[in-house]
Amino acid sequence: MGWKHEMWDVIVVLLVVLLGASWVSLGTASVSYDKHSFIINGQRKILLSGSIHYPRSTPEMWPDLLKKAKEGGLDVVQTYVFWNGHEPQPGKYYFEGRYDLVKFIKLAQQAGLYVHLRVGPYACAEWNFGGFPVWLKYVPGVSFRTDNGPFKAAMQKFTTMIVNMMKSQRLYESQGGPIILSQIENEYGPMEYELGAPGKSYAQWAAKMAVGLGTGVPWVMCKQDDAPDPVVNACNGFYCDWFSPNKAYKPKMWTEAWTAWFTEFGGPVPYRPAEDLAYSVAKFIMKGGSFINYYMFHGGTNFGRTAGGPFIATSYDYDAPIDEFGLLREPKWGHLRDLHRAIKLCEPALVSGDPNVISLGNYQEARVFKSKSGACAAFLANNNQHSFAKVAFGNMHYNLPPWSISILPDCKNTVYNTARVGAQSSRMKMTPVGRGFSWQSYNEETSSYDDSTFTATGLLEQINTTRDASDYLWYMTDVRIDSREAFLKGGKWPWLTVYSAGHALHVFINGQLVGTSYGSLENPKVTFSKAVYLRAGVNKISLLSIAVGLPNVGPHFETWNAGVLGPVSLTGLNEGKRDLTWQKWSYKIGLKGEVLSLHSLSGSSSVEWVQGSFVAQKQPLTWYKTTFDAPAGNEPLALDMNTMGKGQIWINGQSIGRYWPGYKASGACGACNYAGWFDEKKCLSKCGEASQRWYHVPRSWLRPTGNLLVAFEEWGGNPYGVSLVKREVASVCADIYEWQPQLMNWEMQASGKVTRPLRPKAHLSCGAGQKITSIKFASFGTPRGSCGSFSEGSCHAFHSYDIFQKYCIGWNSCTVPVTPEAFGGDPCPSVMKKLSVEVICS
Ligand code: GAL
Predict the structure, then answer these.
(1) Which of 177, 265, 622, 705 ranks highest by number of CB atoms within 10 Å?
(2) Across all residues in the chain, what is the average pLDDT?
(3) Residue 14 binned pLDDT confidence (cut-offs 50, 70, 90)
(4) How many C-beta atoms surround the C-beta of residue 82 within 10 A?
(5) pLDDT at 164 over 80
(6) Are the C-beta atoms of 298 and 319 separated by less than 8 Å?
């Protein structure tokens, strides 16, 4: 009996250990993984994912965005959970509107997508305070993202709340829901490195705490080389093919493949060529990667005061495959869709085992994947950024453009090359709609002492004072000037110097704006220094300090200061220098107009506005309001704010966000070649122009008539230059080589329907509801340039336009074969030709 008992004990213990420790690979759980891939319900998958952050668009936009993500070939949608949106006050939760997380996840499932939920709760994401509620900073004894009791308690509480919510809605895959993965923390590795031991124990704690919540699906930590089992560590970056997970039995995962980069006020707008993005993804997959997430697939908008930074722009477009307004960005979206289809054709071979690596030259290699059932897929890479390569593979030769990868789902035929874009390009336009606005204005007070004013000796830190209830904090003080001062008798004016920790500052003397200073993301600090006129007697110095989003990244970013911390001084007085830092200062949080809720329907009618010719222009600190009717149609809308300086906009009481077209983009915008290593400084646009000119107005925020538009302008601008515009496709282009591989052709051949080689086709498709109205350019031969600026080369088929005239005009879309016959015969035999065409959509 005795030994039997012991045996059973041992077996039970063994079973428990086995089930507990290797649940991830037993296949009992619905989502598991091994070295080659994640496994969902027993099926190995190459997972293609994209980030869409739910509060960066409206619930009305979600179904369409998710549909476009699915049609773009994604399997998964990834989002952070935005703590400060969900718990604006301790214990007061909000899950409505743009923060309806459950709805978003359910819509994803309806669209046929899985979800990767990055609970964090630290997000980073260029989101205000990295996603942390500002009140968290004031929890006694708290220290963020380290081995700190109060912080860990708050983090655990929120994480548990979210996990329980997901469970109760049965949203985990293990319950039949779409969530296949969760993330805890975000890019903590670099932070841990800075913090040392407490960082390390915090990371271990976070992993253990998360795993202990029993979601039934794996947890992920990105940029966390020491992520403890069973947590999967993942890579973020512009390229991640070099990455390998910390254990041989974990899949190779890329949580953030950056589709470009964010825009900051004052910075140019980054973009990333589709060819390079596709190359980086194909390279990751060919090197054994099995999960890739585009950050962002739809970037969207930092509505309200959700932008982090400081200085992060309101647009979070990110040059993503779906643009800020929800329209397809072509050719990026289409080129990735084609890539995804090519990868999926290779899936059976890709998930089956390690590839055979064959060198094809100094910069060229092939990787061949084979499955037991006989599937074979090959990737041929030319990593040389300067030259074409002709490589021998199997018993064929293949031409590889510079910095490109060809995909051969049958190890023979190329169906896709990352540098050969078969998808159409489109150019967008912003067309004014409706009549000009008829404005009314209201002057904000420049030195307003009222019930809410309070005083202190010396200068207060801004965030501690406002708790981020407003961007604005007034610092006001009195300066007595003796009538015997020399400058009053024709001498030099005294200098006022103000040092501020950031982010922007307007200086008023006796109610008059005397100057403005502001920092940048790189250096948020502000120094104001100027000769100012003061009168004999008492002068009022009023400093309006403005926070432009709270920091979201960096070691202990929660401790970074903002506001006028001093010193503040006057020099050039009879006495020499007078330090104002430690005298009595009066404070006021927010603007009078904010207190009055001028942005809202009821608030805006509580004061008297001036109209007609009295409407203020080029005047600082001015509120503007107008009403307008919703334009017909369903194109996305925006406000063109180019003639304004800096401020905020509201529509029907909802905040569109901060605007700052007065901050011009400084930087070097040059030509940008797709080939070669990309980083966020390589490809830039809008230098010398406003970093952000257009501000998204969600259609769903409008009613048919009488919409209230309110703007608060800090600098002084011309409101009559503001217009409502609709965004639509202006023209579409195709740029396709003869014999360029196309997936559809390969599919037709593989199915045995055709035996002869097939020529590629050009597909042109205008926006919904539009028609092709004219052919701007068409040339079959050796045309040059790119979409928008094509020109004929030395070889040009005389009848290049005819076929488009015949088959495209009057239609929403058309398809034309890229063959000499289609253009009236070969204009230059034995020369490699292509078709470039641009058609106008209206
Ligand atoms: C990553 C971070 C993201 C986002 C990104 C830049 O490091 O994880 O949340 O901030 O950088 O857009």
Answers:
(1) 265
(2) 94
(3) very low
(4) 26
(5) yes
(6) no
Q: Which atom belonging to ligand 1 lies closest to the Cα atom of 126? A: 10
DSSP state string for 328-344: B-TTHHHHHHHHHHHHH
Give per-residue pLDDT as tens, 258-279.
999 999 999 999 999 999 999 9
| Ligand 1 site-directed mutation target among 56, 128, 187, 316, most atoms within 8 Å of CB | 187
Q: Compute the average pLDDT of residues 463-486.
A: 97
Residue whose Cα lies nearest atom 6 of ligand 1: it is 125
Say if CB 468 and CB 589 are below 8 A apart.
Answer: no
Expressed in angstroms and rounded, the spacing between residue 124 Cα and the centre of ligand 1 is 6
Phi, psi (rounded to 5 degrees) for 219: -100, 150
**Nearest one of 440, 445, 477 to 620, comparing CA atoms:** 445
What confidence score (pLDDT) does residue 447 get?
67
Token pair, residue 735, equals 């740029």
**Ligand 1 centre distance from Cα of residue 842 (Å):** 38
Nearest CA to 778 out of 830, 818, 741 is that of 818
Q: What whole-number distance in Å separates Cα of residue 842 and Cα of residue 265?
A: 33
Distance CA 321, CA 328 (A): 6
Burial 353-391 (b: 16+ CB within 10 A, else e): eebeeeebeebbbbbbbbeeeebbbbbbbbbbbeeebeb
207 φ, ψ (degrees, to nearest 5): -65, -45
The sign one gets for the Cα dihedral 452, 458, 463, 467 is: negative
Residue 529 has pLDDT above 70, yes or no: yes
Alpha-carbon distances, residue 566 vs 298, 470, 525 (angstroms): 41, 21, 11
- The predicted structure's pLDDT at residue 425: 98
pLDDT in the model for residue 448: 67
Pocket of ligand 1 (CB under 6 A): 124-126, 186-187, 236, 256, 262
Q: Band the pLDDT of 60: cuts 50, 70, 90.
A: very high
pLDDT digits (tens, 9 = 90+) for 757-781: 788 999 999 999 999 999 999 999 9
- Dihedral, 284, 289, 292, 295 alpha carbons, nearest 10: -50
> And the tokens for 620?
């600082």
CA of 125 to the centre of ligand 1 (A): 5
What pairs with residue 712 in β-bridges?
Answer: 623, 648
- Domains in the chain: ranges and CATH: 46-329 (3.20.20.80), 429-442+595-721 (2.60.120), 447-590 (2.60.120.260), 728-841 (2.60.120.740)
pLDDT value of residue 82: 98
First to last CA, the chain: 88
pTM over the 0.85 mark: yes
Residue of the CA atom closest to atom 4 of ligand 1:
125
Task: Say how many Å lie between the CA of residue 645 and the centre of ligand 1.
Answer: 29
257 CA → ligand 1 middle, Å: 10
How sure is the predictor about 756, in pLDDT bands with cuts at 50, 70 and 90? confident
Report, as residue numbers or ranges, the catalytic residues. 187, 256
**232-237 vs 47-52, strand pairing mode:** unpaired
How is residue 144 written in tokens? 């963020």
Checking if the pLDDT of 12 tops 80, the result is: no
pLDDT of residue 347: 96
User: In this prediction, what percent of the chain has a pLDDT beyond 90?
Assistant: 92
Q: Are 668 and 603 in contact (CB under 8 A)?
A: no
